[in-house]
């Protein structure tokens, strides 16, 4: 299996024909991780032939609906597929409180074990680790407690270790640069462009230019931008703005993969 990122959704809060809300699959060292689970994630995974049987771990950045509304459907479907392996969800502790009544109502007889692991989004710490991969939380700043995730390959012989950082949703936050410095690939939200800077500040998001600035300061290998506002139909506006600051920027295009 390749080390790669598959974009399931790169829209913002409002689902549209063009974009689904946030979700991506990170494949690193023969492991698959689902990062955020907006509405529709399970359908896109199925369309792409992504095997949910190999999915053991889900990381949720924060509890806005566009990052977690897909969970209850996915959990239920995995039950119908007679899954037996446990599923681990790492998220703010409120997630379990929010989902519990729905699980009790809709998913009483899940054939597999569902385990919630509370994380503190304000703290930078190792939240997951095995023999080959470490995952750290990246404290972000948004309307509600939010963290990104830094995936780090542990060993790689003589070659440099792969590192991938996921940062959504957040205001421009230079404090993260030190932690993500030198990552191979950085995903950073770019909800707005500079012409909507006022809205961007109000809704605690970043512009494409700001995302590019973080990538430049962090000396990332590549920047992937996403979480696009519906205010712009043409995503090349985001791309142009970011590339003026950080040329090696690509759009997070749904149903495509990016090598890590
Ligand atoms: Zn969002
Ligand atoms: Zn949000």
Overview of this structure, please?
- The chain is α/β, with parallel strands linked by helices and 260 residues long.
- It has one domain: Ribonuclease Z/Hydroxyacylglutathione hydrolase-like (Metallo-beta-lactamase, Chain A, 4-Layer Sandwich).
- It contains 8 helices and 14 strands.
- A 7-stranded mixed β-sheet has the order 6-5-4-3-2-1-14. The chain has a 7-stranded mixed β-sheet with strand order 7-8-9-10-11-12-13, with helices on one face.
- α4 links the parallel β5 and β6.
- α7 runs parallel beside α8.
- The protein is globular and about 55 Å long.
- The relative contact order is 0.15.
- The site of one zinc ion has 8 residues, from α2.
- One zinc ion binds next to loops.
Give a short synopsis of this structure.
The protein is an alpha/beta fold. It has one domain: Metallo-beta-lactamase, Chain A (4-Layer Sandwich). It is 24% helix and 28% strand.
Main features:
about 260 residues; alpha/beta; Metallo-beta-lactamase, Chain A; 7-stranded mixed β-sheet; 8 helices; 14 strands; about 30% strand; binds zinc ion
Bound molecules: zinc ion
Q: Which structural class do the helices and strands define?
A: alpha/beta
- Largest beta-sheet characterization: 7 strands, mixed
Multimeric organization: single chain
Number of strands: 14
The CATH first-level class comes to: Alpha Beta
Report the sheet-strand fraction.
25-35%
Count of domains: 1
CATH architecture: 4-Layer Sandwich
Distance between the termini: 12 Å
Helix fraction by DSSP (H/I, runs of at least 4): 10-25%
CATH superfamily: Ribonuclease Z/Hydroxyacylglutathione hydrolase-like
